[in-house]
Specification:
Elements (H helix, E strand, L loop, with lengths): L2 H22 L2 H27 L1
Helix pairs in contact: 1-2
């Protein structure tokens, strides 16, 4: 599996978790989970771009 395919699956997983968190959590916990998932998505994207440059 290439890195672009892995990135798509990872971002899809993060999106699914974000949707689930949005419907099930309230207040501070919802925003905390969404921020963590966003950070993981950015980290995954940066790692993929870094791998492509090498």
């Amino acid at each position: 599996m290439d890195s672009k395919s892995k990135l798509k699956w990872a971002l899809g997983g993060y999106a699914a978790l974000a949707v689930a968190a949005s419907f099930t959590l309230d207040g501070y916990f919802r925003w905390s989970v969404l921020v963590i998932l966003a950070a993981l998505a950015v980290k995954s994207w940066v790692a993929t771009k870094k791998e492509e440059l090498q």
